[in-house]
Write a structure and sequence with these properties.
Elements: H1 8-17, E1 64-66, E2 76-77, E3 85-89, E4 111-115, E5 124-129, E6 133-136, E7 141-148, E8 153-162, E9 165-172, E10 181-186, E11 190-202, E12 210-218, E13 234-235, E14 241-242, E15 269-271, E16 282-284, E17 287-290, E18 313-317, E19 325-328, E20 332-334, E21 340-349, E22 355-362, E23 372-378, E24 386-392, E25 398-405, E26 411-419, E27 423-425, E28 459-461, E29 464-466, E30 501-502, E31 508-514, E32 531-537, E33 548-549, E34 586-588, E35 597-602, H2 621-629, E36 650-652, E37 666-672, E38 683-688, E39 697-710, E40 713-720, E41 726-732, E42 740-747, E43 756-763, E44 768-780, E45 788-789, E46 806-810, E47 832-837, E48 848-852, E49 863-871, E50 877-884, E51 888-894, E52 903-909, E53 916-923, E54 930-940, E55 972-975, E56 997-1002, E57 1012-1016, E58 1023-1034, E59 1043-1051, E60 1054-1063, E61 1069-1078, E62 1082-1090, E63 1098-1107, E64 1122-1124, E65 1126-1127, H3 1128-1156, H4 1162-1168, E66 1176-1177, E67 1181-1183, H5 1186-1189
Parallel strand pairs: 35-36, 61-64
Antiparallel strand pairs: 1-12, 2-5, 3-4, 4-12, 5-11, 6-11, 7-10, 7-12, 8-9, 8-11, 13-14, 15-26, 16-19, 17-18, 18-26, 19-25, 20-27, 21-24, 21-26, 22-23, 22-25, 28-29, 30-33, 31-32, 34-38, 35-37, 37-44, 38-43, 39-42, 39-44, 40-41, 40-43, 45-54, 46-47, 47-54, 48-53, 49-52, 49-54, 50-51, 50-53, ...
Disulfide bonds: 229-241, 236-254, 472-487
Transmembrane segments: 1128-1148
Region (Disordered): 287-306
Length: 1192
């Protein structure tokens, strides 16, 4: 039954909305609000390219940084005078007042932003402004390095402009310290657009040389939407995920404030001091104030925490230690069995003597008890509001007291005091208000001690007043050495910890713990049950690292040394892994919402480990044995259990049910599916913890699976501290519905214990393709030579015989002295290949340039080595291919003329022992000539004839590279036995079984941005008449859906369609043949496209045979399943005659029906009967509709 016309668009739209039908363009155009928002929303991160992102591979929380090495990252000078900013480097002006090196590289070749080349007679300000940035998370921090090289700088200022308000993040008038200095300031939560400006003001007539480098934004991106959240996390209204401790904490962590508007938060008691003291109405020494209009105090807060604005209010105090400021709550009762929690934000800046203490004072049935110290923060925490939290368990009513004090020049502040819903107010009893309790001094001076007549900040000892600059200077001033007692030398047995103070503002902190209570280690460094400092979880929201500081020390002598004992607790992890019992030593990165998942499947053909019995698969036993014999690698996790270092999720393989009670044992592997959830970021990371090399060379082997019409790139890289990330291996596009083995040799520096990390990165190119990994193994020693080499990441171990004539190059700049303009792998100027200059100056006539592979493993059966070569237009000479075992034997010699195309070469191989392949280029002595090589592939079985393939071992040189002009989709390679989310033929044509393979394209992925997919042969020589035979398979729904398969001839003159067929519900293999002719070199192209609306239907090819120089034989009459191109006169004449007869019969019948009164309207006719299929007219052939050319 045909569908009504008005339901067709709705059905197509419905199909387009389902995951298997969604059409998503591969080229991302991020909306305005997604540009410069510290989240990579497009592949390659072009939406952040002008905001400091330059193609690095950051992990969760990693920065968006600008080191000025490539460009200014969107920062612009907006100065209004000659005193301005420009991108500069020390080597450009060696005698100038600027720095002698940059901060990034530490050399005079490094770049930075500089101001100060202009002399003037008036004070002037140079202003450098960032690009427009969008949305900053509450945890966002901005760090930079600045250098002031002269005394002419009056002021440096860092400001943030958001809407109509400009916030001062930092300001300094010196004194200036020589060298590069680091500045770290939090931005707080910023909604909408904002800009950051860095300005330098110079004195009149002074140059005021200032430099800026390494501007970094840390942890600024808001969380991206997720389909599902980890267990215990909160799912925001905008589908982002936040951790449980981020709920009701006074910060917009979701990005839409839904984490602060939950029903639970509505029962919390929050005091933000915007309208008064709220519940905290018992105060002494605290003042409610704001930044705007506040005192001109250097350490005064520039904004509050609640509103992140200079107009917001907070509590502030400059109380001295002798009279601390006290803030008291009313009485509360903790509702058993839960705790009453207080979350608060505090500010300690301007003085090392700043201190904030939280006390608990309970009211027992008798009298109030002495206050108990719950938390103490001391020292300089920077100009930032830092989150903290205390949990209170008490059977009796209690009050919470906050005591603040500071030293000269210091400020202590409070904002956003949040009491949880389990803090129940106790009704006040009529009577006088109890007085505030004040903490007493640590030690009371006895009446026998002399009066302390020293100034504040000085130490009184004996009859001396030791000034601050002489404290902890390694020279004893006091007779008893009191001035050097709390200066860092300690065994941590004293509660004062030797003067060490925790200065952490993030999720980790240093805590003094007794050994018996810490779990591990069970003793301190001396072996006794003493105390030590340990990293523990904290409630801060800023920088992740835990920091513990001594008092200010020094100056020191040149021989000063620091001795300490340290302990790392690590969990040994295996890098070798088949993922059957877990993820071993591998964990996921969290830069984007695309993640690797460990998934479960059942039976052969699903994962690689349990699929070892499948026909045609290499035996994975070698990889498993290597895994069993491989080493155990240590890993030190800087995070804490339950933190964000690891997040794993179990999910079934798409298209396969995970709940199968019977059948073979389940297997596991790692899967990256960009549709679960729809990924926005550039890619997903799967990486190891830092590893220690076991040998100078190690071999990493693994199995990979890349499948789908729009598959991206899987790459392997190695990271080593202090070095650039090194690419080891990569594959792009679909590689068929099959597991493939790959190997990479890891090279480590000799006598080096530097740790390294391995990283698998999946970069998507749309939403119609998956990536999988399995059976990763590492062993000492080098790998065998790879079976496949594209030269994209390395030279694949090829050597040049010591002469270095062959080089690996790309033509990205378009200025390469020789070589083709594009490689064969990617068909772009960015792709790499090997090339040798054959001009007489580089290689005289008759001389040979050799390219020698690493050793290949012995071959168990005959194999085919294919490669693509490119010869210059001018005769370069001869390319010879040798196999070197005990001796060198020539297999192939190519001396044909060059051209503009890459050509395919192949040799048959047999080798019972280890062997190498050698490419020799013999020069002809011609100017501007070259030979290039790309895409080497070693496959089992003999080499097929040109443009012929049964697809059992692969595509046989047929290229399925996505064609950009057609939407970027590609043909695939599969078998009936392999599970697939796309429909496909149950058996192939070659073997007639589900184990046989075929080429396949799923037309359902085609949409508004994708019109067709091409499968292209190698370049073929001109021919007067040759026959192309092939078998094809189609399967489409009834009526308005129709897939289409066409054969094109592509040459320098253009494209010529020579054959075509459409199909519906043809679940059988049909034979097609066409006679081709061309007066010049050409390629055969199979084009899969649509003749109607998008539909879920496959087009498959098998047993393609190109008979060069042979004409096609007409099929016998019994061949009812053959589609043959028909000659133009017969086809056109017969078809036109048939159409005329049908038209006459239709008119006569309509008139007869009208006379009988039973003729329906034309609209009813359209709804009742399907229309004729279109006829395709081509250059010299006509393809008739399927109903005419085939039996139905």
């Amino acid at each position: 039954m045909s569908l009504p016309g008005h339901l067709l668009p709705a059905l197509v739209l419905l199909l387009a909305r389902s995951p298997g039908w969604a059409w998503v363009p591969s080229r991302c155009r991020a909306p305005r609000e997604a540009v410069c928002n510290f989240v990579c929303d497009c592949r390659g991160c072009p939406d952040e390219a002008q905001c400091g992102y330059h193609g690095a591979s950051p992990t969760l929380g990693a920065p968006f940084a600008c080191d000025f090495e490539q460009d200014s990252c969107g920062w612009r000078d907006i100065s209004t005078s000659g005193y301005s900013w420009l991108r500069d480097r020390a080597g450009a002006a060696p005698e100038g007042p600027g720095p002698r090196s940059d901060h990034t590289l530490g050399t005079d070749l490094g770049w930075y932003a500089a101001a100060g080349t202009h002399r003037g007679r008036q004070a002037a300000t140079a202003v450098l402004r960032s690009p427009t940035l969008h949305e900053a998370a509450p945890s966002c921090e901005l760090s930079l390095w600045y250098h002031v090289a002269s005394g002419g700088v009056a002021e440096l200022r860092l400001e943030l402009t958001h809407g109509a308000e400009t916030l001062t993040l930092w300001q300094s008038s010196g004194p200036w310290v020589p060298g590069w200095q680091e500045l770290v300031v939090p931005t707080g939560r910023i909604q909408g657009d904002f800009r950051v400006t860095f300005s330098a003001t110079r004195n009149a007539t002074r140059r005021g040389a200032v430099a800026l480098d390494d501007v970094v934004f840390w942890s600024c991106g808001l969380p991206t939407p997720q389909a599902h959240c980890p267990l215990g996390h909160h799912h925001c209204q905008n589908k982002a995920c936040v951790e449980p401790h981020q709920l009701c904490d006074g910060e917009d962590n979701c990005g839409d404030r839904s984490d602060e508007d939950t029903p639970t938060c509505n029962h919390h008691m929050t005091t933000d001091f915007e309208r008064g003291l709220g519940l905290w109405n018992h105060s002494e020494g605290w003042a409610r104030n704001r930044s705007a209009g506040g005192p001109q105090h250097p350490a005064w807060p520039h904004r509050d925490h609640s509103r992140n604005s200079a107009q917001g209010s907070f509590l502030v105090s400059v109380a001295e230690p002798s009279a601390p400021a006290i803030l008291s709550s009313p009485e509360f009762q903790a509702s058993a069995p839960r705790n009453c929690s207080l979350t608060f934000y505090h500010y300690l800046h301007g003085s090392e003597a700043g201190c904030l203490q939280v006390f608990l004072q309970t009211r027992s049935p008798g009298a109030p008890q002495a206050a108990v110290l719950l938390r103490r923060r001391h020292g300089e925490l920077g100009a930032a509001w830092v989150r903290d939290r205390v949990d209170i368990q008490s059977k009796h009513p209690f009050r919470i007291l906050l005591a603040g004090q500071t030293g000269p020049g210091g400020v202590v502040g409070l904002d956003d005091l949040i009491l949880s819903d389990h803090c129940k107010p106790v009704p006040e009893v009529a009577g006088p208000t109890p007085g505030l309790w004040a903490p007493g001094p640590r030690s009371q001076l006895s009446s026998l001690q002399p009066w302390n007549f020293c100034e504040p900040g000085h130490l009184f000892c004996g009859d001396l007043c030791v000034p601050p600059e002489q404290l902890c200077d390694f020279q004893q001033q006091c007779p008893g050495g009191e001035d050097e007692q709390e200066c860092g030398t300690t065994d941590f047995e004293s509660p004062s910890a030797g003067g060490w103070e925790d200065a952490s503002v993030g999720r980790l902190q240093w805590v003094r713990l007794p050994a018996q209570d810490s779990g591990s280690p069970g003793t301190d460094a001396s072996g006794a049950a003493g105390h030590f400092l340990s990293v523990q979880r904290a409630w801060g929201q800023l920088a992740e690292q835990a920091r513990v500081l001594t008092p200010t020390l020094g100056p020191s002598g040149p021989r000063c040394e620091l001795h300490m004992a340290y302990y790392f607790q690590s969990h040994p992890q295996e890098i070798s892994c088949n993922f059957e019992r877990g993820t071993c030593g591998w964990h996921t990165g969290h830069l984007t919402d695309a993640h690797w998942h460990r998934v479960e499947s059942r039976g052969p053909g699903y994962d690689h480990t349990t699929g070892q019995g499948e026909a045609g698969r290499p035996d994975p036993g070698a990889a498993l044995r290597l895994g069993a014999a491989s080493r155990t690698l240590g890993a030190s996790q800087t995070g804490l259990p339950g933190g964000r270092g690891e997040r794993w999720a179990e999910c079934p393989q798409p298209g396969v049910s995970a709940a199968q009670p019977h059948g073979p044992p389940a297997g596991h592997f790692m899967l990256l599916d960009p549709t679960e959830p729809p990924a926005q970021g550039p890619g997903a990371h799967l990486l190891t913890w830092p590893q220690t090399p076991a040998a100078a060379q190690e071999c990493l082997s693994f199995w990979y699976h890349l499948y789908g019409p729009q598959t991206g790139t899987l790459r392997l890289a190695m990271r080593r501290e202090g070095e650039r990330e090194r690419h080891l291996w990569s594959r792009s596009g679909t590689h068929g519905n099959r597991w493939h083995e790959a190997q990479a040799t890891l090279h480590h520096p000799q006598d080096s214990s530097a740790k390294y990390q391995l990283l698998f990165e999946g970069l998507r190119d749309g939403y119609h393709g998956t990536m999988a990994l399995d059976d990763v193994a590492v062993r000492p020693g080098p790998c065998w030579a790879p079976k496949r080499c594209s030269f994209e990441d390395s030279a694949c171990g090829f050597s040049t015989g010591g002469r270095g004539l062959w080089t690996r190059q790309a033509n990205a700049t378009g200025q390469a002295a020789w070589g083709p303009p594009a490689d064969h792998t990617t068909e772009t100027a960015q792709g790499h290949y090997m090339v040798v200059d054959m001009s007489p100056q580089a290689l005289p006539r008759g001389h040979v340039a050799s390219l020698i592979s690493e050793e290949h493993r012995p071959l168990a059966q005959a194999a085919c080595l294919t490669f693509w070569y490119h010869l210059s237009l001018h005769n370069p000479g001869t390319l010879r291919v040798h196999v070197e075992k005990a001796e060198r034997r020539q297999l192939l010699s190519i001396s044909t003329h060059g051209g503009f195309a890459w050509r395919l070469g192949s040799v048959d191989l047999q080798a019972e022992r280890a062997w190498r392949v050698v490419f020799e280029a013999v020069a002809a002595g011609v100017e501007r000539s070259y030979v290039a090589l790309d895409d080497l592939l070693l496959q089992d079985g003999p080499c097929p004839p040109p443009a012929s393939c049964d697809f059992e071992a692969g595509l046989c040189g047929w290229s399925h590279l996505p064609w950009p002009g057609l939407g970027g989709y590609s043909w695939d390679w599969s078998s009936g036995a392999a599970p697939s989310r796309y429909p496909q033929p149950p058996v192939d044509h070659t073997l007639g079984t589900e184990a046989g393979h075929f080429a396949l394209f799923e037309t359902a992925v085609l949409g508004p941005g994708g019109r067709a997919a091409w499968l292209r042969s190698q370049p073929l020589p001109a021919t007067e008449a040759s026959c192309l035979r092939f078998w094809y398979h189609m399967g489409f729904p009834e009526h308005f859906y129709k897939g289409e398969l066409r054969v094109l001839l592509s040459s320098a003159r253009g494209q010529l369609a020579v054959w075509g067929a459409g199909g519906r519900l043809r679940h059988q293999w049909l034979e097609g043949q066409v006679e081709v002719a061309s007066t010049e070199e050409f390629q055969i192209v199979f084009e899969a496209t649509l003749g109607g609306q998008p539909a879920l239907g496959p087009i498959a090819l098998d047993d393609v045979e190109y008979l060069a120089g042979q004409r096609c034989q007409l099929p016998t009459p019994s061949q009812g399943d053959t589609a043959v191109a028909t000659s133009v006169p017969a086809a056109v004449g017969g078809t036109l005659l048939l159409l005329v007869l049908l038209a006459l019969l239709g008119l006569a019948g309509r008139r007869w029906l009208q006379k009988k009164g039973g003729c329906p309207s034309w609209g009813e006719m359209d709804a009742m009967a399907p229309s004729f299929d279109n006829i395709l007219f081509n250059a010299d052939h006509v393809t008739l509709p399927a109903s005419v050319t085939n039996d139905q």
